Amino acid sequence: MNYELDAFLTIVVAVLVLFIGYFFVHKISILKKYNIPEPVAGGLVAAVITFILFKNFNITVNFDAKIQQIFMLMFFTSVGLSASLGKLKEGGKALVLFLGCVIVFVMLQNIVGISLAKVLGLDPLIGLITGSVTLTGGHGTAGAWGTVFEQDHGIQGAVVLGMASATFGLVIGGMMGGPVAKFLIRRFQLAEELVPTTGRNEAPPASETAPFEYPEKTRLITADDAVKTMGMFAICISFAYFMTDFARGQWFELPTFVWALACGVFLRNTLELGFKIEMFDRCIDVFGNASLALFLSMALMSLQLWLLADLAGPLVIILLVQTLVLALYLYFVTFRIMGKSYDAAVLCAGQCGVNLGATPTAIANIQAVTNTYGPSHKAFLIIPLTGAFFVDIVNAVVIQATIGFFG
């Protein structure tokens, strides 16, 4: 029996999932201790419930995919609208170094996947699917490339395999970031936990913070500001849909969210630098954080965990090894290159989402860590720019080159 929920019911369930996540994180000490993001906690509970319904009662629940995509586009649009040239310049050398760490790991991820696939007697392209295609690329990239693998390279079930691998990455990426950062912070005594009475709302003005920093900070906005900001979001998302259709099959074809982000960057800097119009950063931050929470909860509550249960043993081995390799890479490479500081530890939490999940997971990871140990302005500047824009371009080039070699 199959139940289809429309957009409004999907939002209702997503909000309920968020409340469940808040409840569990604040009531179960181990979740709070290891900085598990609230949307991840609530989303996994919902995913387990849908798994039980499917296995025991043959009931599937399908949520509205379009509203989930809209919240995803709103999130990436908010990243673009917050990316002023001044903030890009502020990222400076640290942004370049971190991007280098991520790029190297994208290539390492494919080397590990392809090598293990060969050792286990599988097609090397299956190793690529369980590499950067799904773990760095996420569900969108998995779906797009899975069809190519099935039609052009004869990899049967590539789409299902890709979705299962991306699901694994999304779950582990969300659960791994907090514990990794906590281990590094405590191992090297980089920071102390915030005193609860300090309050999360005690933060610098919105103009002095990066996007998604201090998600619970009170931001006073007016209806006029909200309407103008919604207009900019609508422009960016409409442009993204137009360019997705226009560029289909062309050399400049890109995922829809990349067009939304790029339009946000262009619109922000054109209005700010060209017309000297002050941007409404408080509204952008509020819309971005709300969209992030709802998108992440929707993505996780939509997971079909039975796809993971159907994975063959060799594929599970590859995914587990990929997780271990990332943990070792963060400890021995990223953390040290980024300066063995508190910011470096928070960036490691973010990289768990970038290379083993999705950009929203990365943001949720660093929010969870900074809520416990204090702000990391550098991480909130670098992670959105790296995860939402640069890494997708790099990953597309690496995937295409690898397919050309093994295909």
From TrEMBL:
It is a multi-pass membrane protein. Keywords: Amino-acid transport, Cell inner membrane, Cell membrane, Ion transport, Membrane, Sodium, Sodium transport, Symport, Transmembrane, Transmembrane helix, Transport. It comes from the Bacteria. InterPro entries: GltS. One of its GO terms (molecular function) is glutamate:sodium symporter activity. GO terms for cellular component: plasma membrane. GO terms for biological process: L-glutamate transmembrane transport. The chain crosses the membrane at residues 6-24, 36-54, 95-117, 155-177, 226-244, 287-309, 315-333, 380-406. Belongs to the glutamate:Na(+) symporter (ESS) (TC 2.A.27) family. Catalyzes the sodium-dependent transport of glutamate. This is Sodium/glutamate symporter. The lineage of its organism: Bacteria, Pseudomonadati, Pseudomonadota, Gammaproteobacteria, Moraxellales.
